[in-house]
Structure formats: structure tokens, C-alpha cells
Amino acid sequence: MSADPPLEPAAIQSALAALPGWSVDGDSLTKEYTFADFRAALVFMMQVGFEADAMDHHPEWTNVYDTVTVRLRTHHAGNKITAKDITLATAMEKIVTA
Ligand SMILES: C[C@H](O)[C@H](O)[C@H]1CNC2=NC(N)=NC(=O)C2=N1
User: PANTHER family attached here (predicted)?
Assistant: First the structure.
């Protein structure tokens, strides 16, 4: 068994209650963040990027001007959602609401 087993759907749904704007898309957690401008989007990516790297758990994301679209899944768990994805999504929410 992997150290990070895929979460059951019920566990994902209960975690989503505390993650506004996040949803399940296939086997990933996803959210589209919109910022004031490109610079603010870039600051978010830098802050999250350092935290994600410290966690050794990295987002898949795209940036177009003021928008960052995030997809979270765990490669080592067959590309399924694990507790690490919930932890990283929670860290992103703390960063945007700080
Ligand atoms: C060796 C290193 O721990 C792994 O490759 C890490 C890096 N970042 C990761 N990020 C994500 N999203 N899933 C992983 O399984 C993963 N594994």
C-alpha cells in the first residue's frame, strides 16, 4: 500500500466543504483563481510554489494573464486525489485569504 492512498469519494466531498471554489474533475481537484492582474497571479504562484516544493508535492497549473487554473492529484497514487492534495489546496486557500 502506498504511503498516500487515494481518498474515498466521501472523504473528498467532506474536505471540499472547507475548500470554496474547489471541485472534483475526473480524478483531480481543480480550481480557477482570478487575480487583479498578472503580477498578483505571479505572486500567488511564487508563494504556492515555495510551499509546494517544501511539501514535495507539486501542482499542475496554467497561467493566462490574471488567471491561474490549478489541478491537484498525486502521481505516486495512480494520479488520484490523496490527503496531500487536500493539504496543498488548503495551503493555497490560506495564501489567497492572507
Ligand atoms: C520524488 C518526489 O518525492 C516525487 O516525485 C514527488 C514530487 N511531487 C509530486 N507532486 C505530485 N502532485 N504528486 C506526486 O506524486 C509527487 N511526487
Answer: PTERIN-4-ALPHA-CARBINOLAMINE DEHYDRATASE
* Ligand 1 touching residue 57 (CB < 6 A): yes
Using the atom order of ligand 1, give the atom closest to the CA of residue 72.
12
Instruction: State in Å: Cα 34 to ligand 1 middle.
Output: 26
| Tens digits of residue pLDDT in 79-90 | 999 999 999 999
The interface pTM score, or ipTM, of the predicted complex is 0.94
Quote the domain boundaries for residue 52: 24-97
CA distance 10 to 93: 21
pTM attached to this predicted model: 0.96
Quote the number of domains for the chain: 1
